[in-house]
Here is the input.
Amino acid sequence: MLKEAVYHRPKNNYAYAYDTKTLHLRLRCKKNDLSKVNLIYGDPYRWAENHMVSDTIPMRKLTTDELYDYWFIAISPENNRFVYMFELHDGEEVVIYGEKGFTPSLDDNRFFRFPYLNAIDVFDAPAWVKNTIWYQIFPERFENGNPARKTNVNGEWGDVPKPDSFFGGDLEGIIQHLDYLTELGITGIYLNPIFESPTNHKYDTTDYLRIDPQFGDVKTFKALVKECHARGIRVMLDAVFNHCGYGFAPFQDVLKNGAKSRYADWFHITSFGEEGEHPSYETFAFVPEMPKLNTSNSEVKKYLLKVAKYWIEECDIDGWRLDVANEVDHKFWRQFRNAVREIKDVYIVAEIWNDAMPWLQGDQFDAVMNYPFTEAVIDFVAKRKIGAEKFANEIINHLQLYPDNVSEVLFNLLGSHDTARILTECQEDKDKLKLAFLLLMTYPGSPSIYYGDEIGLTGDGDDFAYYRKCMEWDPKKQDQNLLTFMKRLIQIRKTYSALTDNARFGLIEADTDSGLLVFTRGEGQQRIVVALNNGEASVNVILPSDLAEHRVVDVWNDRELGEGEPAFKLEPKQFAIYSVEV
Here is the structure.
């Protein structure tokens, strides 16, 4: 038994409250090392004959990645109190694993503790998020709905964008195309910043309480939210609280008055210099136009929390996406969550590109933008840098980073305003693109489509501008086949609860040589089986016997399989989706 590979820690992603009655426990060990794991558990206050009364129950090996097996159990403590150890078997040795490490007997060890399952501590993302299909809109490039208002347009709609291009997209343009989004199956829109700013991207805010005049005004935005809600579409705004724009009034006051400014501590000023000199200050990255806000300052906190609450109370928005969230202090985000959740059950999504567990423990964010998933899909499908086995290992490992109730609401995406277009990553191969979208719509979490990806927009280059083309509204210039495919795929996700109700992802087969990937979603009475061929030759697929013996429906072609049909052939870049009623 390789004891060095065994790992568990309470009150984290290895032991957490899934809901108000259920604990999830995980144990990691070396791949193929343990033959059996039992959970020894009890109530710390239930004793008899000078010993705590304990019970034993087997755990199950849930999943496996490149290096490790993960054992799992869901259990409901009778009195919300819970202590436990693990009994590990490898066929030759039996050891007890507890807080003191490895011991030959229970009496020599110390129980891990989950002291009390407090309902208020349970991770509580909005329930509706699991069933939401997001659509990200870069407002300046979606549609010019009111040309008469514009004073800054410097290019024709559809021109190749430059960093300083303005094409006139606005809020009214979004309203005019809500029927399109409804027909696509969208139930949530995420808008890049819409507050006053001199740039087209608006990540350098000058007034957080004012809609940029080129986009409209608060009345227009209220109308947008109302129209969205009437169609069952939620609305999420982008908040830039790590930094502001150069023209932000408090920062301009600091530039004018230096250390004497009442706002001097609103920013991270490293040197005010001599009188008349320009101060030195911290920024986002190395961008002088984006001075970093000091969120530990009480006045800054008060102002930003006022902003966060204002747009919920005034316009009834449903979520906040938080830019550069990992560079802002944890204390501020805890106060932020408390402030907005007192008003409404909003969805809080952070821009964090890697392991975000410190922010996802129920006291700060509901989700992060799931770029590790993005990168894995691009490497596997678009670029074929990794094979099916490596892809499966990466996503299984990533799913173990978080509790299941976190994975169920992660903001999954194939691209955004910060990345190359997914079709461009696929070398404009639309069969590859369809496989990428298949993975997006069948993966645990809340999927997001970047505007125009569903009709085949492309974009790459050395500048973000290339990722932000104008939306194409001429049906003759849209890929209607791709659009029809997306509508069908979204409808399937919305129809089958196995794709949304839980985070359970089960690997059936991942063959690097052939490119075949087969996996299941869901548990209980209904499961979804997804098979895709990312290789260069046809492959034969055989469903496992425990699934094939049940009623199996070919979801994509809407037909029930007969006896003997669970064996089928997939051509290169083709896929199959099956519903199995267990």
